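New to this. Please check both lines:
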Amino acid sequence: MISKNKIKYLRSLKLKKIRQKYNNFTVEGDKIALEILQSQNVEIESVIATEDWKHQHFNQSLRNQFEIEVSEEKDFKQFSNFSTPSPVFVVAKQLSTSWNDDVIKNNFSLYLDGIQDPGNFGTILRIADWFGIPYVFCSSKCADLYNHKTIQSSMGAFLRVQVMYLPFDEVFEKCGEMPFYGTVLEGKNIFEEDNYKKGVIVIGNEGKGISPEILDKITHQILIPKGVNGGAESLNAAVATGIVCAILKNK
């Protein structure tokens, strides 16, 4: 059985300040847990699972790398982030990131200007991963990468996409003469431009859009046009990201 102190510690990792203190995060669910355990880039702190899960999934290659704490299903309810707990719970160290000038200047990147919903954030990471966008930069007002909702909705994309929290001005300065794209209602129809160059795609806050101080530095204002009978006031931030990435990456 897991000790009371261990359960208390695992429960505390729901809080951002505690995750920052220990520089770690948690993962639940078969697919993403196995992906993390098989990754070469993640340092594992502990693996907790039911006996059935261990028997079914913990193959010889994993057994040689990690020890597993076996626990009963009822124990997971005490520290799981979900109302119906997964039979596996992994604690891992947060990932290191670094700026690679060559990679950034030869690819599209994303800059998230205050994306606050963890589900949207994780979905955007999944979109970046799908389209081969290696870097996602985030303002300080963005949701926490290691919020369990971000992790789950990214479907493992956070393992392949570099996520860095940086002020916009720092990214703008480092990216030199690269184009900065942002969607605005007064922008140019995104379908009417044929020659999109590698650059930074800025995604605004779910409710307020791109902040004025950043909008002033957008070099290419673009618009996703409504359909003929379109009535919605705006698009979800993650949906808009998917559309923009699909078009810019395939021009």
The mean pLDDT is 93. The radius of gyration is 20 Å. DSSP finds twelve helices and ten strands in the chain.
